[in-house]
Structure formats: C-alpha cells, structure tokens
TrEMBL record:
<dbReference type="GO" id="GO:0006779">
    <property type="term" value="P:porphyrin-containing compound biosynthetic process"/>
</dbReference>
<dbReference type="InterPro" id="IPR015424">
    <property type="entry name" value="PyrdxlP-dep_Trfase"/>
</dbReference>
<keyword id="KW-0663">Pyridoxal phosphate</keyword>
<dbReference type="InterPro" id="IPR015421">
    <property type="entry name" value="PyrdxlP-dep_Trfase_major"/>
</dbReference>
<comment type="similarity">
    <text>Belongs to the class-III pyridoxal-phosphate-dependent aminotransferase family. HemL subfamily.</text>
</comment>
<dbReference type="InterPro" id="IPR005814">
    <property type="entry name" value="Aminotrans_3"/>
</dbReference>
<keyword id="KW-0627">Porphyrin biosynthesis</keyword>
<dbReference type="InterPro" id="IPR015422">
    <property type="entry name" value="PyrdxlP-dep_Trfase_small"/>
</dbReference>
<dbReference type="GO" id="GO:0030170">
    <property type="term" value="F:pyridoxal phosphate binding"/>
</dbReference>
<dbReference type="Pfam" id="PF00202">
    <property type="entry name" value="Aminotran_3"/>
</dbReference>
<comment type="pathway">
    <text>Porphyrin-containing compound metabolism; protoporphyrin-IX biosynthesis; 5-aminolevulinate from L-glutamyl-tRNA(Glu): step 2/2.</text>
</comment>
<keyword id="KW-0413">Isomerase</keyword>
<protein>
    <recommendedName>
        <fullName>glutamate-1-semialdehyde 2,1-aminomutase</fullName>
        <ecNumber>5.4.3.8</ecNumber>
    </recommendedName>
</protein>
<dbReference type="GO" id="GO:0008483">
    <property type="term" value="F:transaminase activity"/>
</dbReference>
<dbReference type="GO" id="GO:0042286">
    <property type="term" value="F:glutamate-1-semialdehyde 2,1-aminomutase activity"/>
</dbReference>
Length: 432
C-alpha cells in the first residue's frame, strides 16, 4: 500500500461509479487492484510508476508480450482504413484460413467478441444439431459468464454432493429457472466416474464441454486417457465433444487438441487470436457449422455488431504469423525452466508444492499431490498462495492472484531466473 497510493486514489474514485471499482471480477484482489498506466514488452508500469515483469500476460492473452511491432503495425494500418465496417473484411478471411489450417477440428469458424460468446455458441450449436438439451461440464471448469455455464465453478465442495455424484451448483445469482437441470457435472481426469455419469445421461446429452488444460482453476492438464474417453463417449452416444481452448490454444500451433491428438467436434477460442483486442471464435465440423448459413436458412441466429472487427482480425493475423513452431518450443522450454525452478525452491525450503501446466502455462499449488481435479485443487493452501501473490507483486512480478501464469515471447532466461529468485525471497519470508 505504501508503493501504490495513486492506484488507491484512482480505485477510491472508481468505486463511486463502478461496483468495487472495476468491470471484471476475476482481477479484483484485496485491499485494492493496481491500476496500469502502460505496458511494453514484458514490463507493466502502474499508476505510481512502479514497473513489474508480466508473468500472467492479461490472463494468458499477450503471448508476444505488450505492444509487439508487427501487431501494432497491422492494427495501425487497418485503423487508418476504418475502425468498423458494415460488411465483411479481408482480414477475417485471412484469420479464418490460418485457424482452419492449424486447428484439427476446424472445417469452418465464426468470430465473436469474447470467449463467453464462443462457448455459448458451441453449446447452442450442439443443442440444435442433436435435438437434445442437456450438456455435461467438468466440476470447476470455467467457460465464461453466460447462464448455462455459470454452474459448479469456484464452489465449496462440501456443498456440491459426493465426489462421485457431483451436484450442479449455481455459481451466480440471477440464473434462469431450470439452468441447473440442464447441466450434468463430471469430475476432471477420472475416467471411470465421469464415464459412468455420462452413460447415465447418454440419451439426453447434446454435448460435453471440457478445457483440455483447465485454466482459471490452476492450469491443470487433462490426462490423455480422459480426453480419449470423452471422444469415445461422444462417438458412442451422439453427443458432441466441445473443447474450450480459450486458454489452451496457446500450448501448440493447433492448440491442445494437436498437443493431445484428440479432435473434438467443436472448439471455442478467445484471448490470443485477437492480438490483444476483444475476440472470440467458435468452429468445427462443416455439417455443424452449416447451421449458421444464412443461404440455407440460418437455423441458428448469430449477429454481433463488432464480430470480426477488421482491426481485431488484422491484429490476430499478425499475432498468429509470429507464432511459428520454434516459438512454441522456446516458450515451452522457458516455462519448464520456471516450473523446475519453483519446485527446486520449494524442495529446499521444505514447502510441499505441485507445479502444474502445459506449454507456456503454469500453476503453483501449495500442498501435496497428486492434483487431478477441482476438489484436489480446492484443498491446497489458498491462504499461503494469496500471501505469496502479494509478495511477488511487491517484488515486481505479476501473476494471477491464485498463482497461475503464462509466459510471453518478451520474457527470457534472465527474467525467468529473476522470477525464481524473487519467489524464493517471498516464500522464505512467509515460512520464517
Ligand atoms: C477457458 C475459458 N473459457 C471461456 C472464457 C471466457 O472468455 P471471455 O473472458 O473472453 O468471455 C475464459 C476467460 O478467461 C476462459 O478462461
């Protein structure tokens, strides 16, 4: 609080006009969030002029760091030609082509302005395609803020049924009647229990939606056997398999579906594909996407004034063009170096830890493993995590408040080494 008086002053003003001073729950923390003044490369500067190295990169979005020249150039060039049109634009076609070439499940794609709209459309498309209404989701899985998916995330496990019979729990006030009846909840990474629950509902399920790497709960990768089981269940039952790759798309050029070699029927995207501008996309098999064809009667309604905005699309194309297989390899190597560094520090300080992640994603969890699913993560030491988060902030490192992070190409070995040394100082102070 001593180093952030300006942030505090702006936040107090903000609270007069915005509930708790902001427009996103996910980035609020006590005593108040820090306001950003600018961001360049790996460095984020706050309203008090304090610089911090960015290890979360706008909740995993800024994979090239802040203000990469090719993306800024592409966005600037398009801005000179117009900010928003009442017609389609060429950049949309280029981005769609790039995505369809890279992502195994994409025959066709449509753009939205958020990951929320993307997951909403995957579930809607599955319902329309199968003529069924229920869908299955993983306990703890986050898929945005539309009604259907605001179920069983960040819940207290003791109020959510037995582990092997999880009950749908509302995770927000204001959901429509009947929302909970539509959701079937399965545990992550438990092939047997999840398959039994899915089989019990096999006639009713339009879809199963899953993050191949569970993001916001802690960068928890799927067991490959789990994804294969979901693929088999979908093939056996007629339900569609949906991957929410809003976060996990950054693990490989073709996303986590390429990384795991399991191809879903539909995929939702967001974050990195807009180069820092608001974006989402959903796509999949052409027979499912045909439901969005106006020429064929547009079975599914889909509008959006800013969908496929030309500036966003140009920034997305420029971003993906930078993301070569070599870049992914380098990011994965650096992130593994960070994970190993954290494990080493915790081992030396005798603090039990599980460091999770895949590709450029990582999560730090204090406690004993193994961590397979949401209930395991819920039992880790959140109090210590919260104190380490504030400690890292004071040492000059940005993470999400539950100690998950994502690297960018603006970070190198020097910064990763500095992060690990900062982590050691912070943890040592907490344990003394
Ligand atoms: C896995 C996942 N799905 C969906 C969303 C929603 O995306 P958006 O915030 O763009 O609506 C998020 C956002 O963090 C996410 O992590």
């Amino acid at each position: 609080m001593e180093t952030t008086p300006q942030s505090r002053a702006i936040w107090e003003e903000a609270c007069r006009y915005l509930p708790d001073g902001d427009s996103r729950h996910s980035i609020f923390w006590n005593p108040y969030p820090i306001f950003t003044e600018s961001a360049r490369g790996a460095v984020v500067t706050d309203a008090d002029g304090v610089e911090r190295l960015d290890f979360i990169n706008t909740m995993t979005t800024m994979i090239l760091g802040h203000g990469p020249a090719p993306v800024l150039d592409a966005a600037r060039q398009q801005m000179e030609l117009g900010l928003a049109y009442n017609s389609p634009n060429r950049h949309q076609v280029a981005l769609a082509r790039l995505l369809c070439e890279r992502i195994p499940s994409f025959d066709q794609v449509r753009f939205t302005n958020s990951g929320t709209e993307a997951t909403l459309n995957t579930i809607r498309a599955a319902r329309a395609f199968t003529g069924r209404s229920k869908f299955a989701k993983v306990e703890g899985g986050y898929h945005g803020t539309h009604d259907a998916v605001l179920v069983s995330l960040r819940i207290d496990p003791s109020a959510a049924g037995a582990y092997d019979h999880p009950e749908p729990v509302a995770s927000s006030a204001g959901l429509a009647d009947g929302v909970l009846d539509q959701a079937v909840i399965v545990p992550y990474n438990d092939v047997e229990v999840a398959r039994r629950i899915l089989d019990e509902n096999r006639e009713d399920l339009a879809a199963v939606i899953v993050e191949p790497v569970m993001g916001s709960v802690g960068m928890l990768p799927a067991d490959p056997a789990y994804l294969t089981m979901l693929r088999d269940f979908a093939d056996d039952s007629g339900a569609l398999l949906i991957f929410d790759e809003v976060i996990s798309f950054r693990v490989a050029p073709g996303g986590a579906q390429e990384y795991y070699g399991v191809t879903p029927d539909m995929t939702a995207l967001g974050k990195i594909i807009g180069g820092g501008f608001p974006v989402g996309a959903f796509g999949g098999r052409s027979d499912i996407m045909a439901q969005y064809s106006p020429v064929n009667g547009a079975a599914i309604a889909h509008g959006g004034t800013f969908n496929a905005n030309p500036v966003t699309m140009a920034a997305g194309v420029a971003t993906l063009n930078e993301l070569t297989p070599t870049v992914y390899r380098r990011l994965a190597e650096l992130t593994e170096m960070l994970r190993q560094g954290i494990r080493q520090v915790c081992s030396e300080l005798e603090q039990p830890v599980v460091v999770t992640g895949a590709g450029s994603l990582f999560g730090i969890h204090f406690g004993h493993g193994p961590l397979n699913h949401y209930r395991d993560i819920a039992s880790t030491d959140k109090d210590l995590a919260g104190r380490v988060f504030i400690g890292m902030l004071n040492e000059g490192f940005l993470l999400a408040s539950n100690l998950v992070g994502a690297l960018s190409t603006s970070l190198g070995e020097v910064e990763v080494d500095a992060f690990v040394r900062g982590f050691r100082r912070v943890l040592q102070r907490q344990l003394d």
